Amino acid sequence: MEFVATAAFGLEGLAKKELNRLGLEARGETGGARFSATPAQAFNANLWLRTADRVLLIVGEGKALSFEDLFQLVLSLPWEDYLPKNARFPVSGKCARSQLMSVRDCQAITKKAIVERLKRHYKTQWFEETGPEFAIDVSIHGDMARLTLDTSGAALNRRGYRTWNGEAPLRETLAAALVMMAPWKPDVPLYDPCCGTGTLLIEAAYLRSRRAPGLTRSFACESWPLFPKKEMAQLRQEAESRFDPSLIGSICGSDIDPQALDLCKRHIKQAGLGGKITVTQKDLRELTRDGAPPLFLLNPPYGERLSDRKQCEKLYRDIRALYDRHPDCRMGVITAHTGFERCFGKRAQQKRRLYNGRLECEYLLY
Fold it and tell me: How deeply is 84 buried, as exposed, middle or buried, from its count of CB atoms within 10 A (0-12, 13-18, 19+)?
């Protein structure tokens, strides 16, 4: 079967590499990475992907210049191979740069065509939709329509450990990507001096300890008849056996906000990492680390409001002072502030354009 692992802009290449490491041949495309897999392999991708948002099963694709084209395309697809008679199948949609720009009409036509196809197969005029959910998406871009089934359910960034986001939430998938793109070697301590509610620290510990990010959550495909329950249970057991907290090493953080730290400690515990990550209340201006030069990884405030901008720019100068106090350290900073390098007083050795939600950001490596 054909699948696509969707990913935020700038993370498609990482998602492709992750799929390759899982033994799947993938090719990057705008908004994700496409791959062929068995149902069990697709479940395993849900379990292990750190930087992807969802794993979608591609039911079919084709040109749709009119609503009639769309209806006939959807009607021609083998929905009965996927949807049991009692399936719940809500339809979502999106349209961009196409003849068909009414998302609501595209959703309604897609639903109507699927019902018509299932009527013919199941010889019935009514579907109660009381069974497992099969979320369907109709995506039309450049007059090409793609019909998919969402195997993930809740988005893959929902690892299950974060109960509250704080003021400047960093999505788990992006946090994992920042760790993966950083120059972090096994013997290098990792420190987040603006740790907030702990997402960067937890994702770093998950990566280092070989902990599958989806280990303790469920996926929509686990209730689908098409997906092999016994094989999926074995894959989950294998993932559990690979998790080794003793591999975590030195991962620490601090923040000046005691409320954020309380949430951070709660999230660390809920992530199953109690006692493996050390966090303390500390002003970044007073921070000094002894021992091996660390990798500082930060998601500082961006100063989006004008009233906060001067305070944030002062913080960026304080971050430079932290950098200077640790001559052999490395540093990674994600920010939406276009003047960060000016305030920091040094150009980054590497830059990546990424998005934190809808905010365009730069990931700067020193």
Answer: middle
The Cα-based distances of 87 to 23, 80, 112, 129, 132 in angstroms read 31, 10, 15, 5, 5
Q: CATH topology for 172-212+234-365?
A: Rossmann fold (3.40.50)
CATH class of the domain whose range is 2-150: alpha beta
Edge-first strand listing for the sheet containing 190-192: 278-281, 251-255, 190-192, 295-298, 330-335, 359-365, 350-356
Locus of tokens 């998602």: 15
> CA 290 to CA 124: how far, in whole Å?
72
In angstroms, what CA-CA distances link 353 with 86, 363, 364? 45, 6, 9
Tell me which residue has tokens 């000046």: 256
**Residue ranges of the alpha helices (H) in the chain?**
12-21, 39-48, 67-75, 103-122, 172-181, 199-208, 229-242, 258-270, 306-325, 340-344
Contact 54, 245 (CB under 8 A): no
Q: Please give the torsion angle defined by the CA atoms of residues 264, 269, 275 and 279, in that order, rounded to the nearest 10 degrees.
A: 0
Instruction: Give the residue among 157, 140, 139, 156 at the shortest CA–CA distance from 148.
Output: 139
Q: What is the mean pLDDT of each run of 10 residues along the chain (366 residues)?
A: 97 98 97 98 98 98 98 98 97 95 97 98 94 97 97 97 74 98 95 96 98 97 97 98 96 96 96 97 96 96 77 96 97 96 97 94 98
Domain ranges, ordered by start, for the chain: 2-150, 172-212+234-365
Where does residue 352 rank: exposed (0-12), middle (13-18), buried (19+ CB within 10 A)?
middle
